[in-house]
Automatic annotation (TrEMBL):
Residues 12-47, 53-88 form the EF-hand domain. InterPro entries: EF-hand-dom_pair (IPR011992), EF_Hand_1_Ca_BS (IPR018247), EF_hand_dom (IPR002048). This is EF-hand domain-containing protein. Gene3D superfamilies: EF-hand. One of its GO terms (molecular function) is calcium ion binding.
Length: 95
């Protein structure tokens, strides 16, 4: 299945979102809080061997994801991020 096909399949996108979200929501609160985002991004940075995001960068990232500004990321807000990533992947794939 191509990234484009996944992107056009809402059921699939929702499923991917749910699996990823549940894996990242360590305290099962139903939201990704700032401390969870920090540990996710630090893990990513370590894996990619790049510098960990600064506190200011974390604020920027959270602001970007947190559409209703309640200080945490809901599953719906997280789905917007997944869709963004899939669109980028589809573009790369179709080059
Ligand atoms: Ca949480």
């Amino acid at each position: 299945m191509s990234f484009r096909e996944i992107l056009n399949n809402t059921q699939k996108v929702k499923k991917i979102t749910k699996v990823a979200f549940n894996a990242l929501d360590e305290d099962d609160s139903g939201f990704l809080e700032r401390k969870e985002l920090i540990s996710i991004l630090n893990n990513c940075a370590d894996t990619l061997k790049i510098e960990r995001p600064s506190s200011e960068e974390m604020d920027e990232i959270l602001k970007e994801l947190d559409e209703n500004s309640d200080g945490k990321v809901s599953e719906n807000e997280f789905q917007a991020l997944i869709e963004k990533v899939l669109r980028i992947m589809a573009k790369i794939e179709e080059k």
